[in-house]
Design a protein that fits this description.
It catalyses: D-fructose 6-phosphate + L-glutamine = D-glucosamine 6-phosphate + L-glutamate. It comes from Mucilaginibacter panaciglaebae. Keywords: Aminotransferase, Cytoplasm, Glutamine amidotransferase, Repeat, Transferase. There is one protein chain. The protein is an alpha/beta fold. About 45% of the residues lie in helices and about 15% in strands. It has helices at about 10-15, 15-25, 45-50, 60-75, 85-90, 110-120, 135-140, 160-180, 185-195, 200-205, 210-220, 235-250, 285-295, 310-315, 330-350; strands at about 30, 35, 50-55, 80-85, 100-105, 125-130, 145, 225-230, 250-255, 275-280, 300-305, 320. The strands form three sheets. Strands 4-3-5-6-7 form a five-stranded parallel beta sheet, with helices on both faces. Helix 2 packs parallel to helix 8, helix 4 runs antiparallel to helix 12 (about 235-250) and helix 11 crosses helix 15 (about 330-350). Bound molecules: 5-amino-5-deoxy-1-O-phosphono-D-mannitol (M6R).
């Protein structure tokens, strides 16, 4: 049911305040400043004693995993590896005592992720999963499942499922930090109060839709596009590029901004727009240098910045302001404009937004 919306993708983008609310409900207890995961109760000791988490997933779910790596290493003080399920399953992966394998899948049916899950279980690992579809194959093959509760997602391009996966990972990182007693109660209280505002901050962020529609009128004429970000904005760059390529068929690549000078800079000229994800402040000066390098080569710069930004605004051709948030929320807040940019660019190119060519909603064959 599109409930009056023209496309499922658009509807699902705008459902994000509600889907995130559903995802956090029951898990986020701001009064006691606690994160709870009832589904992990039986595995608490194993999680406390874990030496490493190996995340296995594909596509957008793999990007969520990369974001989770930043969160879990920082707040859970636990080492994380993120693997493409398809590579993991055919390598001879080494699974040691104390390794947890975490599968991430919207559908719970992706063939490679399911095979990786089964392999990890056979090797004796504790297998957890993050999934949106209750009772799907991957949850059935796992010891415990954290459901994203985003509601059914129909558009082939994953939007609300992605943001709820990232939300579960943010909560999970704090949960691990709490049960390992690595986070000061006051720090946790502050972070959880902020996180509880996520649905309303997303609502505010969605107001950038008109700006993104306007930027798409420029962008949709190009054949190539580069997405750059540093730190946790790097996986956001990958996600922005995947959204754009899969529904608008514009060739797009995501890179860590620092990698630009190791190759991609050779591509930059007036035909290569560059989208900077620069809403995080920790590497502000460095991002400014990267923007100058692009401008010097006549590249068109589109920048996603926090609303208090002063410098990038003076340099970029197009600016998208998003609310100022902490690092656990920034990846979601920065992805929303990129979802909309892909959507409007695809429309202008007369592409089938909900059913892009050659793609299926769940990839149940290799
Ligand atoms: O259902 P899954 O999360 O396992 O699906 C993984 C990918 O096939 C999926 O994320 C794909 O990349 C999407 N079309 C991205 O929008």
């Amino acid at each position: 049911e599109k409930s009056g919306y023209e496309h499922f993708m658009f509807k699902e983008i705008f459902e994000q305040p509600q889907s995130i609310k559903n995802c956090m409900q029951c898990r986020l207890d701001t009064e006691r400043a606690l994160v709870t995961f009832d589904e992990l109760e039986d595995y608490k000791t194993e999680i406390i004693n874990a030496r490493r988490i190996i995340i296995v997933s594909c596509g957008t779910s793999w990007h969520a995993g990369l974001i989770g790596e930043y969160f879990i290493e920082k707040y859970g003080e636990l080492s994380v590896e993120v693997e493409y399920a398809s590579e993991f399953r055919y390598r001879s992966p080494i699974i040691n005592r104390g390794d947890i394998v975490l599968a991430i899948s919207q559908s719970g049916e992706t063939a490679d992720t399911l095979a990786a899950t089964e392999l990890a279980k056979a090797e004796g690992a504790l297998v957890l999963c993050i999934c949106n579809v209750v009772g799907a194959s991957i949850p059935r093959a796992s010891h415990a499942t954290m459901y994203t509760n985003a509601g059914i997602e129909i558009g082939v391009a994953s939007t609300k499922a992605f943001s709820s996966q990232v939300t579960v990972l943010a909560l999970l990182s704090l949960y691990i930090g709490q049960i390992k007693e690595k986070i000061q109660p006051q720090t946790a209280a502050g972070l959880l109060t902020e996180l509880s505002k996520l649905p309303s901050v997303i609502r505010k962020t969605l107001q950038c839709a008109d700006t993104m529609q306007f930027i798409a009128t420029e962008l949709h004429n190009f054949y190539n596009c580069l997405f750059l970000g540093r730190g946790v904005a790097f996986p956001v760059a990958l996600e922005g590029a995947l959204k754009l390529k899969e529904i608008s068929y514009i060739h797009a690549e995501g890179y860590p901004a620092a990698e630009m000078k190791h190759g991609p800079i050779a591509l930059i000229d007036d035909k290569m727009p560059v989208i900077f994800i620069a809403a995080n402040n920790d590497s502000y000066e460095k991002i400014i240098n990267n923007i100058q390098e692009v401008k010097a080569r006549k590249g068109m710069v589109i920048a996603i910045v926090a609303e208090d930004d002063t410098e990038i605004k003076k340099m970029a051709d197009f600016i998208v302001e998003v609310p100022q948030v902490n690092d656990l929320m920034m990846p979601i807040i920065s992805t929303i404009p990129l979802q909309l940019l892909a959507y409007y660019s695809a429309l202008l190119r007369n592409c089938d937004v909900d059913q892009p060519r050659n793609l299926a909603k769940s990839v149940t064959v290799e």
